[in-house]
Specification:
alpha/beta, TIM Barrel, binds flavin mononucleotide
């Protein structure tokens, strides 16, 4: 069965992508995810203008039903990232460069550099709940979101996807701002703000105290977000949040996603989770008489 997918001109052999921040900081680890893991596309770690070391340890914690992380966006800075993109590109899988900044101009500058490094598309990280000063207010204000997307789209020639935070009252309104700004796709969702306390110590576990929750716990939030966005925009949606299995991916597709990203799932099922999920999608399609992915996309909305 054919799982080939195209989103805004980006062709993928299957609809699974590596989500930003998981093994996405070096060209070598990205290539491994492509070759051994079977991902259809790769999103890099979010890269900023300057190198950052991130927060202290512990920065990540395993909970019953998810992961809580407060890495603080450690990254080598855009100037040191060209070689990594070049190495990753040798895997012949589309590379989506994720960037974060604190103004539309900085976003456009970073996106332009990422494009000249060789990225096939840009993902704007508009929401980072655990790095103070970066993105939090911008990603929740539709006026600012539209301005960021418009500035970036006008500055570069490759597709621009905007990744949204679920920590807003009306995510579909933010998605509409992305569409109005000329964005080519929406990625939903980023992590949700969470906290864990060690009772014996009476102290927060993470050094940053508050972190981003990912994994199975946030899947219903992500599916709801994609569903709400799909009712309001025409541009493609890439679903992310708690996808571990083919059935999880299909839930997102039936809510309206054309493709999916997997982050924490790499921790749960190993780097070949992309192959496993693709196989499980195929098995589901065979058992339920679907011959193309398109037949499933958005049907939960259409079936109302
Ligand atoms: C350790 C870790 C680091 C992350 N770093 C980034 C990042 O740099 N940029 C970004 O946009 N999202 C980042 N995320 C969020 C993921 O890309 C994804 O949106 C979120 O984890 C939900 O998907 P999942 O449940 O499949 O992990 C990170 C997530 C984790 C667990």
């Amino acid at each position: 069965m054919n799982l080939e997918t195209e989103i805004a001109g980006i062709r993928m052999k299957n609809p699974t992508m590596l989500a930003s921040g998981i093994l996405g900081q070096t060209g070598r680890s990205l290539s491994r995810i492509a070759k051994e893991g079977g991902a259809g596309a790769l999103v890099t770690k979010s890269i900023g203008l300057e190198a950052r070391t991130g927060h202290g340890n512990p920065g990540i914690l395993e909970l019953d039903n998810g992961l809580l992380n407060a890495m603080g966006l450690p990254n080598p800075g855009i100037d040191n990232f060209e070689e990594e993109v070049q190495i990753a590109k040798q895997s012949s899988v589309p590379i989506i460069g994720s960037v974060f900044a604190s103004s539309p101009e900085d976003f456009a500058n970073l996106a332009g550099r990422m494009a000249s490094h060789g990225a096939d598309a840009i993902e704007l990280n508009l929401s980072c709940p655990h790095a103070e000063g970066y993105g939090v207010e911008m990603g929740s204000d539709p006026v600012i979101v539209e301005s960021i997307v418009k500035t970036v789209v006008e500055a570069i020639q490759i597709p621009v996807f905007a990744k949204l935070s679920p920590m807003v009252p009306d995510i579909a309104q933010i998605a509409q701002a992305v569409e109005k700004g000329g964005g080519h796709g929406i990625v939903a969702i980023n992590t949700m703000r969470g906290m864990s306390i060690e009772p014996e110590m009476g102290m927060p576990v993470l050094s940053n105290k508050i972190g981003g929750l990912s994994g199975p716990a946030i899947k219903p939030v992500g599916v709801r977000a994609v569903y709400e966005i799909a009712q309001k925009v025409e541009i493609p949606i890439i679903g992310v949040g708690g996808i571990n299995t083919g059935r999880d991916a299909i839930e997102y597709m039936m809510a309206g996603a054309s493709a999916v990203q997997i982050g924490s799932g790499v921790h749960y099922r190993g780097i070949d989770i992309f192959k496993k999920v693709s196989q499980e999608i195929q098995d589901f399609m065979q058992n339920n008489n679907y011959s193309q992915l398109d037949e499933m996309i958005g049907i939960a909305g259409a079936n109302q």
